[in-house]
Amino acid sequence: MSKMIELQHVTKKFNDKKALSDISFSVSEGEIFGFLGPSGAGKTTTINILTGQLVQDNGQAFILGKNAKDISANDLLNIGFMSDTVGFYEKMSLYKNLEFFARFHHVSTEVLDDLLKALDLYQDKDKKAENLSTGMKQRLFLIRAILHTPKILFLDEPTSGLDPTLSQKVHDILFDLKEKGVTIFLTTHDMNEATKICDNIALLYQGNIIEYGAPQAIIDKYSDENKVVIRFQNGKEITVPKEEVANYLGQYVVSIHTMESSLESIFIQLTGKAFTNE
């Protein structure tokens, strides 16, 4: 598969503060890539470089097979960007907000209606945008970004504030776009979500990529295969070496499972900091 996004040894400073420090990664066509890091880690700077809004100090950035510095207005039509800062008309209805973009991209109203129904918004389509809940706005912004089935899709916290049922519906739509060859670059603070839907991830901290690869491969790398967690009927849990498991059998054991790390615990292990959006 061709590389749709690639950074090679990119560095970016703002005054004397280094926002990105020699970062490199690539994202292939049809891949769901998770770019994970707390606020201030460098995620927005990276996206702005890839979309031609910023120029890096060192290194090279490529998108859609060309240098990010050289992307044109026509190239931007092949990119979907989930944003709440532009093109949101509070006095217009939810439907009119999206119909404007559908017409701009020559997308049929049938496609728009299908997306509204898939994300449980169709019944609220006549509500004024200013009266929408945070979750409704989130889904509106997502639909706007994916209406034209772009080649590359940038999503910032696509399921933030959504309940598990709606989050799953968003995931189903992303998997469908992936099947169509859309490359999805997403940021999320939900490590479980990243583990579930991403083909590859990069853990970003203070402008550095501290881990990169398939989520399960990273988890396996840091998991201790020689220890297991034993849970008892009274709710107590203990961690013991595998060879000691036999000593606890028959003692009201409810479950025994291997000790597997999570992306969040790995992040804490590598940085000494909790993974938060603070």
From TrEMBL:
InterPro entries: AAA+_ATPase, ABC_transporter-like_ATP-bd, ABC_transporter_ATP-binding, P-loop_NTPase
Keyword terms of this UniProt record: ATP-binding, Nucleotide-binding, Transport
Residue ranges of every copy of the ABC transporter domain listed in the record: 5-231
One GO MF term attached to the UniProt entry: ATP binding
UniProt keyword Transport present: yes
Cross-referenced Pfam families: ABC_tran
Keyword Nucleotide-binding appears in the UniProt entry: yes
TM regions (residue ranges): none
Name of the protein in its database record: ABC transporter domain-containing protein
